[in-house]
Specification:
The first copy, chain A, is an alpha+beta fold. Chain A is built from 10 helices and 15 strands. The first copy, chain A, has 2 domains: 258 residues, L-amino peptidase D-ALA esterase/amidase; 117 residues, Ubiquitin-like (UB roll), CATH 3.10.20. Chains A, B: Keywords: Acyltransferase, Amino-acid biosynthesis, Arginine biosynthesis, Autocatalytic cleavage, Cytoplasm, Multifunctional enzyme, Transferase.
Chain lengths: 386, 386
């Protein structure tokens, strides 16, 4: 049910012909009674037209609908591209009886190409016609935002006075400052926009922002959260419980993105412990996550801790190279900056890999999720646009 | 002739058995009359034992000899590894009749393994016995520092009152703050250590520091320069001419490293023009050089300027996303942040690729050298230590 599991939401996913095959336009509508919304966007300065539009449209804390398309990012398309996004919002608003200012737009696909508006606008109308509260409608929406994702990503959670549903797409260009992706999260909790915004930012900080598949930050990343207040016990939720559930939904979706990243053979959780601050733990983990040599080593089944140390050594986080420890899948193969337990004890045959780095400099920790670097990654990304 | 082309130098390269095949110990001796020396080292905080040793040994501006070994980096080997480097310097010094404090040591190869001192020390003796001023000796030294390099790298230059020779090795872990590599540059110019040091730092800044093959900074990078003052017209050189020639030798070696980087199919020069400062030009170029999506696109013959803009957009350099231009091999496929000339006019069939980014924010420029990301890179680096 995901995004239609919370009361007050309808969804649809249709085929407009923007992609060579499959659904490519999703629509999610919040029927209220509340229309609180919050969103976070890519920090890339080359932001796509839909990011520029949606950031402005959501700034008043209200959104009634989100239109998402795959088959084109509408990035680096100039004023014409922005006009295309504006027309998309106007068109959806008219068909739904809303104000265009309350319609957010998200796009994903190739950069530097105009969208086929002759296909997109009829597709938006078709989506409006197919809106439903059933599970099939929510799944169709999750399907429609896929690009090279091999599976649709959904997550949900609930507690007293609230239900949360979410969909996301990822696959390539996954990096921090926002894991390059689109996600829409719905809830029927009774929340004002600023409370929703604060909860979303905290959830994104420790979930999507810590998913770093290939170090490449997209121009289109968007996470939208909408609250309808339509829960039977709306207003009865505990704020802490809601925040924890929202964070869990975001973590769940982020993990699914990493599990299905382009061409990956391993999903890798890099946990840095003993850091002076949480930020330093994140910095150390991200440096390792961005080392192509570390990533190829994991692909090769090689627990190469020297490449992990070399990556941490490029940062300015507090640690002493002569005391740092590193474990791979529970085996402490680096002790005190040197050779530790026998590396032949490390089993890398499973997809999931756990790296633990102990900086011995404090109590803080953080986990970064990443992938290995494989032949399939090179293949998919060298052939993508040609 | 390279490192033995300048007067006052002898070299040797021998096989000690540290690698599975081929020469693996190089020795370069400065017979004077001057023994001025300067060196730059990796800025990686996980610095290898030979880096720690050599940085201290060269701090007085004097070096009489450099011992270099492939077949082991002697990094992350703790106090025992440092003792191994110390013994290597002592052993070479004794055989050459020098002080160990005047012998620099460089190592390259796998991280996290002790060196086979039972092979290395006899190898140092053999190298001392084979020292020669001939071309074969210089080439043997260049051969002995190779790891996965497919060819030996040498360069030379001369002017009134000076000759310069250089050798280098690179291949993997090539990144900034020092292109991960070893290089030894000799000259017979009459130079005091501080002048040599200033000239070397400026030359390295615009050459090796701007070679960024895979974004991974090594624990062992070292560039050593030694001046013998043995030129027949020693002291007659023009300081500007010498600096320019030294920079040219460093640029030549850096370009050779990129041309022979592990598994690369293209060598890519990313020139950023119209930057507010030279540092900003370097930052923009480096961001592109580190984008795996850009690198795989070039491998796939795809002039994907959207990925170039997305990479520049992650930086804080001065530019306006709506005015930036990008050319690939002379075709301005991105104009004013949007679609420019026809991308089908870009020919990527040659190894050499020229990317030009015009930030339209000033007069400064810089060129970063990098490689594409290929199946061979993944293959070589996933299989390296297993």
């Amino acid at each position: 049910m995901t995004v239609t599991l919370p009361e007050g939401f309808r969804a649809a996913g249709v085929t407009a012909g923007l992609k060579s095959a499959g659904r490519d336009i999703a629509l999610i509508v919040n029927d209220g009674p509340l229309h609180a919304a919050a969103a976070t966007f890519t920090s890339n300065r080359v932001a796509a037209a839909p990011v520029l539009w949606s950031a402005q449209a959501v700034s008043d804390g209200r959104a009634d609908a989100v239109v998402l398309n795959s088959g084109g990012a509408n990035a680096c398309t100039g004023p014409e591209g922005f006009a295309d996004t504006h027309r998309t919002a106007e068109h959806a608003a008219q068909a739904l009886g809303l104000s265009a200012q309350d319609v957010l737009v998200c796009s994903t696909g190739l950069i530097g190409q105009r969208l086929r508006m002759d296909l997109l606008l009829p597709g938006v109308e078709a989506a409006v016609a197919e809106l439903g509260e059933d599970e099939g409608s929510a799944l169709a929406a999750a399907e429609a935002i896929r690009t090279t994702d091999t599976v649709a990503k959904t997550a949900q959670a609930s507690g007293r006075g609230f239900t949360i549903g979410g969909i996301a797409k990822g696959a390539g260009m996954l990096a921090p400052g926002m894991a390059t992706m689109l996600a829409v999260i719905t809830t029927d909790a009774e929340l004002d926009p600023s409370t929703l915004d604060a909860a979303l930012r905290e959830a994104v900080r420790v979930s999507f922002d810590r998913a770093d598949s290939d170090g490449c930050m997209s121009t289109n990343d968007t996470v939208v959260a909408m609250a309808s207040g339509a829960h039977p016990e709306a207003g009865a939720h505990d704020e802490e419980e809601f925040r924890a559930a929202l964070t869990e939904v975001c973590r769940d979706l982020a993990a699914q993105l990493i599990a299905d990243a382009e061409g990956a053979a391993h999903e890798i959780a890099i946990t840095t412990i003993g850091a002076a601050t949480e930020e330093q733990a994140e910095t150390a983990g991200r440096a390792v996550a961005r080392s192509n040599l570390f990533k190829t080593a994991i692909f090769g089944g090689d627990p190469n801790w020297g490449r992990i140390l070399a990556a941490v050594g490029t940062t300015d986080v507090e640690f002493d190279p002569s005391t740092i420890d590193v474990a791979v899948n529970g085996v402490w193969i680096c002790r005190a900056g040197g050779i530790g337990e026998d590396r032949s004890g490390v089993d890398l045959s499973e997809r999931r890999v756990e790296v633990t780095i102990d900086l011995k400099s404090g109590e803080a920790e953080a986990t970064i999720l990443t992938n290995d670097l494989t032949h399939d990654y090179v293949h998919e990304n060298s052939a993508y646009s040609t």
